[in-house]
Known about the structure:
There is one protein chain. The chain contains 7 helices and 5 strands, in the order βαβααβαβαβαα. It is an alpha/beta fold. Helix 1 (12-24) links the parallel strand 1 and strand 2 (29-31). The longest helix is centred in the C-terminal third of the chain and has 16 residues, at 135-150. 36% of the residues are buried. It comes from Flavobacterium nackdongense.
Amino acid sequence: MKICxxxxxxxxxxxxxxxxxxxxxxxxxVDLDYSASKKGAMYPEIGYHLAKKIQDGTYDRGISIxxxxxxxxxxxxxxxxVYAGVCHDVFSxxxxxxxxxxxxxxxxxxVIGPELAKTIIDAWLISDFQGGGSTxxxxxxxxxxxxxxxxxx
Length: 153
């Protein structure tokens, strides 16, 4: 599994903690560091850039961090075929994958501490979509998404 991570200026410390944590576990993770190539970049374009890398298959999953995680989730969900959610607890992180098949997790450095963030990311990474009763719901979500992106005017 190939994973990418990025953040805005409000989450530099948490990004480093999570990047180092996952690297120490031998996980294939890349820091996109969009802000290094575009000074003054704000969370919408940083989150969009990460989501596009998920959409085109460059990475399987992404971790997107800002002050609250809310803005990063909102912009990632604007990219067709990409599903993201804010998670600040382990149960939600597991359900994000197991029930919703989301490829992007977002979180906020101003909301949670580094140790909890590591635990959340670990739970999210070992979780896979379970199908079952969630399958028709995820299928319907994809159908509605398709209508939204490709509706006839």
